[in-house]
Design brief:
The structure is a single chain. With 171 residues, this protein is mainly α. It has a single domain, classed as MFS general substrate transporter like domains (Growth Hormone, Chain: A). 81% of the residues lie in helices and 0% in strands. It contains seven helices and no strands. Helix 1 runs antiparallel to helix 2, helix 2 runs parallel beside helix 4 and helix 3 runs antiparallel to helix 4. The longest helix is centred in the middle third of the chain and has 29 residues.
């Protein structure tokens, strides 16, 4: 929410100033992310109950960070569509798996509180992230702001997985 999801807010800047693809191109960029998200959700649903949910959550988080970084550096429309497709897929896949893990591994007497904190961190911090990344984009440019955000996400998830190895074994 703080470093990755603001890519959606910055997409008009990329469409206008970086990729020079206009309003129609912006629609395609947003659709690529949405298509990736929908297909990621469908594939995840088709998998059903599977092992290694923790590994998927970690890989999804790292992939989201790296694809955000890749999109930030991309200067071609087709490559940007690809990275946004991967962004949508990775974001929805990892968010859904984390949601599932929280609901299945947290004691029922605190599950509501934990899920409210998860929702707050995922949705409630989005406006803060938009403001923060928008300000950073104004200062150093949208590509650099988003590239930094993507690297922070990937590094955070790698650090989390390294310090909490049991996370990878969650099913």
């Amino acid at each position: 929410s703080l470093f990755g999801l603001p890519y959606v807010t910055l997409l008009p800047v990329f469409a206008r100033d970086i990729l020079h693809c206009g309003a129609t191109g912006l629609g395609y960029l947003m659709a690529a992310s949405g298509l990736g998200a929908v297909l990621g959700a469908v594939v995840l649903a088709r998998l059903g109950d599977f092992r290694s949910k923790g590994t998927l959550a970690v890989l999804g988080g790292i992939t989201f960070g790296l694809s955000t970084f890749g999109f930030a550096l991309s200067r071609t429309f087709g490559l940007s569509l690809f990275f946004l497709f991967v962004d949508g897929w990775a974001m929805v896949s990892s968010a859904a798996v984390v949601n599932t893990l929280l609901q299945t591994h947290v004691s029922s007497h605190v599950r509501g509180r934990v899920m409210s904190l998860y929702t707050l961190s995922f949705m409630g911090l989005m406006p803060v992230g938009n403001l923060m990344m928008g300000s950073l984009a104004e200062w150093i440019g949208a590509p650099w702001a988003l590239a930094i955000g993507g690297l922070i996400i990937a590094a955070f998830v790698v650090g989390l997985a390294a310090s909490a190895r049991d996370l990878l074994r969650l099913s």
